[in-house]
Amino acid sequence: MTTTTKLEEGLALDRACLKAWFTMHEAQRQRMRFQRFWHPELFNTKVEPRPQSYATEVFKEVLDSMGYGPDYYDRMANTEANAKADLERVARTHPLWEHFEAIKGLSAYTCGAYVAAAGRIDKAHTIAAHWKGMGLDVLPDGTVPRRIRGKKDVERKIPALPHVTMIGEQIRAQFLRPQGRLSEFYYGFKGAEPPDKQKIYRHKSALRLTQKLLYACLWREHRLAYGLDAPMPYAFDLLKHDLGHYITIQDFYEPQG
What is the Cα–Cα distance from 242 to 155, expressed in whole angstroms? Predict the structure, then answer.
């Protein structure tokens, strides 16, 4: 298989993941939009549901007349389930799946979602470019783009596209749920932060650094799988840091036995 063919087939897989994720997300959004009207019993609440009001009854009639009735809700629920299944099926055929499968806390869904967020990996020629597309870049002074209360003239770059930000939050949520290598990296970064920093800042910084490190390793494997070059990070390529500190995707794997 030529490099061009390998890249074309790989990008087709990436596109399939993105299409499945968008389909799933939009169907989920529509389902949740109308769930309180057609299936209020599905909401997890300890409060007794209120009796249906006169306005709600009329509004449901309007929704039904516009094509947003119970049949539409059921169709969106089925579309959501099928799209998620498609996303997971495609993800299991993706070159990155062998790595996601070996990392505790990650799944076929997170693999497909990550690929959907990564976009055109052939356009991200460096790790820094990939981080920027994933909303993990920094300002020229090395600080994270953020708003400051009471100030409107603060430089604030758009971190990432909405779906990239959403997927990033879903992946970060997996770092602490299982106690594995991901959480070890998190606690290592958190412990290295100055103790005088507020707890919330140490927590967010550790999450961000763990995510950047994971993404850097996945970026490299993603590009190599498609026959693309994957240059070493700046610190090792130009500054010639000790390669003993270089982290690979295998360092995230759970120890065997």
Answer: 35
